[in-house]
Sequence to fold (225 residues):
Amino acid sequence: MEQILIVEDDRDLNQGLCKALKAADRQFLSCGDLKTARSQLQRGGISLVLLDINLPDGSGLDLLGEIKGDFPQIPVILLTARDTDMDIVGGLEQGADDYVTKPFSLAVLRARVNTQLRKRLGAGQREAVQIGHFRFDFENMAFFAGDTRVELSKTEQKLLHLLVANRGSVMRRGELIDRIWTDGAEYVDENALSVTVKRLRDKLGAQEYIKTVYGLGYSWVTKDA
Fold:
């Protein structure tokens, strides 16, 4: 589940951003000041931060520095009415991943948010993931159950990555189909997903990890947490 933290004191804009960026398996945490934002960050699970510079209790640039110091993996997009070169350079030099000046197109912002989330997912994908006796190296397409290497098809790899990247959360059937079969096919039989899930379970011996959530979809349950 992606969690986007929106730190913006304009309540109407904050709510508008939540609506414009709405997507399946995406949650929003809305804050209007630095204090509340810091509290949300400490709870963990944040995937991306949309951060206004001018806030009631200080500068968003201060929070930007804290995020990049404590949570460097979290992408931050600055939202501000300032548009001078000095402000833009200052924000980027402090680690901002992108910078959008008000007023801005919601369609453009949505594209930039999606880009940053894909980059974050890709960064996580480059590192091997160790879960219990499983080890998944997505970059080198090497997958192990204990000491046994398991050969997976491209479709099975996509499914595994989505489940592992969102472990602990339910991935809905419709979203899995949309994100796995991206070749432009107009229709994919839902049975194809069921068959792929079964094959992945059997190959990995992960019957206790890949759970069916009836009526919704599938979830990777971490038994060793």
